[in-house]
Specification:
Layout (H helix, E strand, L loop, with lengths): L1 E4 L13 E4 L4 H11 L3 H5 L12 E3 L2 E3 L11 E4 L1
Parallel strand pairs: 1-5
Antiparallel strand pairs: 1-2, 3-4, 3-5
C-alpha cells in the first residue's frame, strides 16, 4: 500500500488523519480507494474528467505529477497539496 499525505485543508474528510495507507497501482486507483473510505475526498483533488484540479498539486515522492494514471509502487509516498 502506498502512504498518502493529506493536507490540513482536506482532513475534514479523513476525520483529522493526515497520513493514510491506500491500495492501488496508480494515483487514480489510490484516490478511488481513499474515496471509498472517505466519500468526497477524490472530488476535491480531481475533477469530473479525472484531471488534477488547478489548485491541487500531487507528488510521488519528490516528483510532481498531474497524471492520475501515473504508476505507484507499494513503497511510494503520494503527497497531496
Amino acid at each position: 500500500m502506498a502512504q498518502v499525505f493529506i493536507p490540513s485543508q482536506l482532513t475534514a474528510y479523513t476525520d483529522g488523519v493526515t497520513r493514510l495507507d491506500a491500495a492501488g497501482v496508480t494515483v487514480g486507483a489510490v484516490l478511488d480507494d481513499l474515496d471509498r473510505r472517505f466519500p468526497g475526498l477524490k472530488f476535491r483533488v480531481v475533477d469530473e474528467q479525472d484531471r488534477v484540479r488547478k489548485h491541487m498539486r500531487l507528488f510521488i515522492g519528490r516528483d510532481e505529477t498531474r497524471n492520475v494514471s501515473a504508476p505507484l509502487a507499494e513503497s511510494d509516498e503520494l503527497l497531496i497539496f
